[in-house]
Structure formats: structure tokens, C-alpha cells
Write a structure and sequence with these properties.
Shape: globular
Distance between the termini: 40 Å
Oligomer: single chain
Strand content: under 5%
Mean pLDDT: 90
Order of helices and strands: HHHHHHHHHHHHHHHHHH
Radius of gyration: 20 Å
Length: 375
């Protein structure tokens, strides 16, 4: 076995163990009851023919609940659902590593993957019975295939990309943000290389649209519930950077200030490292940097701007950007010239995140723990 895979397996085992504390005795967080109910409903084949009534009260597409419902045929337990979601989180770590290998060597990819594995948002979502952690994996998988298509010129990767897009639209409606960014990336590269749109590319796009139309029709049916949700609001300018704060620390700002305000210093450090990483990528390879920037900035910008005019914004709907954000952070760390500074910041971030996760484990069995995490 190659050494890199041995380290990767060890990392996955450690990551799995780190997601086990209080997994089975944690209090239910935001909307987890709906997930359990929907998964229980979808274990019956008949529910596939009556999706509208099965999903009543939940403004989400059905595929995530169908995936959770199938194993319940064999092991009908909430514990089964929780293990599946943890495994989805581990899948995301594995995909993140192979995506990083498109840009970096083995050692640097492993270092960045360690960061991703112990990021508080990734860990907490891996214990949370909602589709967000699966969406992280689908986003990074779509980027992997899209990158392969653009830079290796193999058409099969475009098909794979579009298949991931279709699956994503039946997992969470807000995946339309990264689908749009991916399509824009393809069009931008055609323009950049002065290549005319091929007919079969148009056929693929039409097929993608036709395949996601049923999910849009379901969304239309659910739209009255969507806008009746009192938790959604028109944002103000200070809310715009909040998703970046959540990806950096995850714990609610007020909880941090009340319990361990010193951790707050990590946010500007992590954010500046992400900026530095982005600048370094741009310096080394402009085309690849633009590929990453489009797929991170465009979804963030579109949802933020839309949030000023309609009640459609929440940091939750940008959580799929976490892998790219951590990639920028990690890239910034490994490109610091001072070796002492590089490892000091890496260790400081990991220790700070451990502190946050220990805090999470200390409250997760308490009713309404999610108000402190703001999940």
C-alpha cells in the first residue's frame, strides 16, 4: 500500500472516532425531527408515488430522505441514520483529498485534508441529520469532474459533472448556486479559448434542464411554505461576511463572546490566510485560480445580493462552499515562507478548532444546544 493511502486511512479512522462522542445521545437540532420522519416515510415504496404529502412541512427535495430511508428496511433505527450521515462526512474528506491532489503533491494535500477533517463545521454537520454534509461532498465531486473536463478535455467528465448536478438538485434546491457557477465556468473557458459552442454541449445542457424540471415543480408546490418560514429575513450588509465566520468557527458569535472570546482572533487569521492562499494560487496559475474563484465567489455573491431583495438568504445555504474555503486557507498556510510561522498557525488553528468541538460536545446533549451553535 502506498504511504499516502496509509496516512489517509489513518486520518479517516481518527476522523470517524472524532465524530462518535455523543452521536447517539445528542439532542435533536434544527429540523432533524423532519429528517427522521421523512426517512421513516420513504422506507415504504408507496411513498415514492406520493412525494408531496410525504414532504409536507419540509421545503426540501426528496432524494436525501430516500437515501436515508433505504437502510431502514434492514435496521430500522435513528442510530442507522446517524451512522449514514457520519459516513457521508467521511466521504467528503476522501473526495476533498483527491480534489486537492489536482493542485498539490501528496504531503501538502494530506496537510490540507487534516484541516478539512477537523474543521468544526464539517464535524458538526457530520453529526447533523440534514442534507448539508452530503451537499459538501457533491459540490467537491462536481468540481473534481468539472476540472477534469476543462483541463483534460475528456467529455465523459462533463457527463459526470452534469449527473452530479442532477443528483444535487434532488438533494437541496440551493445547489442551483453551484450548478450555475459550474455552467458559467464552462462558458467562460469556451470564451477564453475562443471555442464555439458545440452542438452536443447544448444537448447536454438541455438534458440537464429537463432532468431537474421535476425538482423545480416540487419546489413550486412547496413555495408557500418556503416564504412562510419566519427564520428567513432580508439581510443587512453586516450579515454578508457571516457565512465566512461560520465556516471559520461555526459557533454562534454571541456564544463565543460569552464563553471564550479569545477564540474570535482565529476568524481574521483564517480569513486572511484564505485571501493569501487565493492570491498565491492566482500568482502560480491564473487559469486554475479563476476556476476556483468563479465557483466560490459567484454562488456567494449571487445569494448575498439576492438576500437584499428577497427572504432567501441564510448562511446554511452557502455551507457547501466549505471545502473550497478550507482549501484556500490550507493553500495559504503551506505557502507561508517562514516555516515556524507556517506550523505555528496550523497548530493554533487545529487547537482552536479542538476547543470549539469540545465546547460543542459539552452542550450537545442539552436541549436547544443548537441556539449556541446557530445551526
Amino acid at each position: 500500500m502506498r504511504k499516502e493511502y496509509a496516512f489517509l486511512i489513518i486520518l479517516l479512522i481518527v476522523a470517524f472516532l472524532f465524530r462518535m462522542p455523543h452521536l447517539f445521545d445528542k439532542e435533536q437540532g434544527t429540523d432533524e425531527k423532519l429528517t427522521i420522519r421523512n426517512a421513516q416515510n420513504f422506507k415504504h415504496i408507496s411513498s415514492l408515488f406520493n412525494i408531496n404529502s410525504v414532504l409536507v412541512g419540509d421545503v426540501n427535495p426528496p432524494l436525501f430522505f430516500m437515501i436515508l430511508g433505504m437502510p431502514l428496511w434492514i435496521f430500522d433505527s435513528v442510530a442507522t441514520l446517524k451512522i449514514i450521515v457520519v459516513l457521508m462526512g467521511l466521504l467528503g474528506i476522501l473526495l476533498f483529498y483527491f480534489f486537492s491532489r489536482l493542485f498539490l503533491d501528496e504531503n501538502k494535500s494530506l496537510l490540507i485534508t487534516i484541516l478539512y477533517s477537523f474543521n468544526p463545521m464539517q464535524i458538526i454537520l457530520s453529526q447533523h441529520l440534514r442534507s448539508y454534509v452530503l451537499l459538501l461532498s457533491l459540490f467537491i465531486l462536481s468540481l473534481y469532474f468539472l476540472y477534469k473536463y476543462i483541463y483534460f478535455k475528456e467529455e465523459k467528465y462533463l457527463i459526470y459533472t452534469f449527473l452530479v448536478y442532477v443528483i444535487s438538485m434532488y438533494i437541496h434546491y440551493y445547489s442551483i448556486l453551484f450548478i450555475g457557477a459550474g455552467i458559467f465556468t464552462i462558458l467562460y473557458n469556451l470564451y477564453l479559448k475562443n471555442i464555439k459552442m458545440e452542438r452536443r454541449l447544448v444537448y447536454y445542457a438541455i438534458s440537464l434542464i429537463l432532468l431537474i424540471i421535476p425538482s423545480l415543480l416540487l419546489l413550486k408546490h412547496q413555495i408557500s411554505i418556503l416564504f412562510a418560514d419566519k427564520t428567513k429575513f432580508i439581510i443587512t450588509p453586516e450579515i454578508v461576511p457571516y457565512p465566512l465566520y461560520k465556516m471559520s468557527l461555526m459557533v454562534d458569535y454571541s456564544a463565543v463572546m460569552q464563553s471564550f472570546s479569545f477564540i474570535l482572533i482565529l476568524f481574521p487569521i483564517i480569513f486572511l490566510l484564505a485571501l493569501y492562499g487565493g492570491l498565491k494560487i492566482f500568482k502560480f496559475n491564473k487559469d486554475k485560480a479563476i476556476f476556483l474563484f468563479i465557483n466560490f465567489i459567484l454562488p456567494y455573491l449571487v445569494l448575498s445580493l439576492a438576500g437584499f431583495f428577497a427572504a432567501v438568504h441564510s448562511f446554511r445555504y452557502l455551507m457547501f462552499l466549505l471545502p473550497l474555503y478550507i482549501f484556500f486557507v490550507g493553500y495559504g498556510i503551506i505557502n507561508l515562507k517562514n516555516l515556524w510561522l507556517r506550523y505555528s498557525l496550523f497548530i493554533a488553528i487545529i487547537l482552536g478548532w479542538f476547543w470549539i468541538i469540545l465546547y460543542y460536545f459539552s452542550i450537545v446533549t442539552i436541549y436547544h444546544w443548537n441556539t449556541f451553535i446557530a445551526l
